[in-house]
Amino acid sequence: MQNTFTHELDYRQERDFGQKISAVFSFVQAQGRPLSRVLLYLVLPVALLSGLLMGVAQMGIFSTLGQTVTRPGGPFGLAGTGFSFLTGIGGLLLTYLLLTATLYEYVRLRMALPAEEEVTPALVWAQVRSSVWWLLLSSVVLMVLAALGFVFLFFPGVYLVVALSPFFAVMIMERNGFSKNFSRCFELVSGYWWATFGLLFVMQLIQGFVGFIFQIPTYLLMGLKLAHIPVPGEDLLVVATQTLGAIGQSLMYALTMLAVLFQYFNLVEIKDGVGMRHLVNSIGEQPTTAVSSTAYRPDEEGEY
User: Fold this and answer.
1) CA-CA 20 to 30 A from 290: which of 70, 89, 126, 243?
2) Does 111 have pLDDT greater than 70?
3) Worst-scoring range by mean pLDDT, 24-33, 52-61, 141-150, 239-248?
4) Predicted structure pTM score
5) Residue 67 has pLDDT above 60, yes or no
6) How confident is the model over 21-40, as pLDDT tens digits?
7) Can you spell out the DSSP letters for the chain?
8) Ordered DSSP codes for 263-276
9) What pLDDT sits at residue 19?
10) Phi/psi of residue 177, each to 5°?
11) 216 to 21, 65, 210, 219, 224: CA distances (angstroms)
12) Where are the domains of the chain?
């Protein structure tokens, strides 16, 4: 039976490495239409603005390529280009946080609501508008901790990044404070660090490869500029291609965050067995056909 990801038990399952990656794309296939509507309303405007700012900055950089006498920063000047670049980077960071909050709140609502009830943008926004600011504050603290780990020694930084990767999933799904979420991440990942690292590594490869496709128009324009080949409407094309790249990369980031979410559910089942207890308690109360036939089997992940 095809998994439609409309019941809590569709998520709370133990999955091996391949099943977690498969679950990401199965979820997108099953929930793509209502989820895309939510992302269209809540995430796309910020991603679009960020892309436009990055496009303006890129236009200033492009104006200097292949020229011996330049106006630094193009028509907006060096300060204007720098400001556009910094605000664009900040906008992309906000886009990623908003995307994470929207994605995870969508899943939390999908698990809680009846299968026949659609998760609407209004329902998700009611949750996101409060959680996204906590995600922003938490992300600043996490980035500082990870940066300190990289500064003092490279490997502690890598360890922290992987160990804390489920932080936002824990934060939204369990609704605890920062310190509790922090310790919960280490509790869950303990003994499964390499499995989490392997999943993140593979998903980053997929994200990078597909995201590169959205950057191809920008690289083509850059090549034409360096070759001194005139391009009609060059400035507008630079902004348009950079905006497309920003939106594309944001969408690909969602795949990695979904993989982290399924790893979170996987680790919770291994450590706590929440889904199994829910299944046992629901016997005789509701049909159990929503559970995949491969769920809750004692798969051995090994390192991955």
Assistant:
1) 126
2) yes
3) 52-61
4) 0.83
5) no
6) 999 999 999 999 999 999 99
7) ------SHHHHS----HHHHHHHHHHHHHHHHHHHHHHHHHHTHHHHHHHHHHHHHHHHHHHTTTT-SS--TTGGGHHHHHHHHHHHHHHHHHHHHHHHHHHHHHHHHHHHHS-TTS---HHHHHHHHHHHHHHHHHHHHHHHHHHHHHHHH-HHHHHHHHHHTTTHHHHHHHH---HHHHHHHHHHHHTT-HHHHHHHHHHHHHHHHHHHHHHHHHHHHHHHHHHTT---TTHHHHHHHHHHHHHHHHHHHHHHHHHHHHHHHHHHHHHHT-HHHHHHHHHTTTS--TTS-TTTT-----TT-
8) HHHHHHHHHT-HHH
9) 95
10) -75, 175
11) 26, 18, 11, 5, 12
12) 8-277
CB atoms within 10 A of CB 293: 7
Q: How many CA atoms lie within 13 A of 23 on its CB side?
A: 27
Q: Is 9 exposed, middle or buried (0-12, 13-18, 19+ CB in 10 A)?
A: buried
What is the identity of the amino acid at 92?
L
Confidence of residue 284 (pLDDT cuts 50, 70, 90): low
Single-letter residue type at 279 = L
